[in-house]
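lol ok so funny story. i was supposed to be doing the assay writeup but got distracted and ended up predicting the structure for this chain instead. priorities right. anyway since i did it might as well share w the group, maybe its usefull for someone
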Amino acid sequence: MNARAVEVRGLRVRRGGADVFAGFDVDIARGTITGLLGPSGCGKTTLLRAIVGVQQTASGTVTVLGEPAGSASLRRRVAYGTQGSSVYADLTVRQNLRYVARLLGAPGGDVDRVIVQVGLTAQADRLVASLSGGQQNRVSLALAMLGSPELLVLDEPTVGLDPLLRAELWGLFRAVADAGATLIVSSHVMDEALRCDRLLLLRAGRLIADTTPAGLLSSTGTADPDAAFLELIRRDGGA
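and the output, tada:
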């Protein structure tokens, strides 16, 4: 088995007549949590969309689990959690999950499994519209976990959550990775960098660091991720 979950070679994406990426390369290892970090507009969502095969590209290749990104064979092996809630507000949590489970052909019992994993047992039969924003984000995550995908691509899954909920979700991400899945999690919250196995830091469509949490701090001589990122920007030519 290829040790790489994702291989990106020469990726070029254009939007509005300008390059978002111009010859971007990166590899992502299986069985890890890779944090994709950087300020808004740096290309995080575009890269994630390219990995799941829904982004129009100008050139380059993106290979996912040994197949071209977006291949039909990957539909049940790759899950994509988009920014914000992606659920039906007029259905209950359980109804949302049952609907998607049928579409995926997920095993029986999967709905109950993911409800427990994301901590929504008490809310399972409530309408999504009645849930808090953080709970709705958990429903979106539960949808992504149906069928036990090999790769979960999560675009800012903790945005808008309080520190306690963020910590709980990161604990869940770690449990999913420890069970053998690969996670790619984007964020613009730099302290989440410390919860990843590997860090990819983007700036203006370029990879300015490919490192680990410990390596990020030691290489920049800083004590926290925010200061480390600012130091990397300074080295990259400033604002």
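The helical segments are 44-52, 93-104, 110-117, 133-145, 163-178, 213-220, 225-235. Residues 85-148 form one domain.
back to the writeup now i swear
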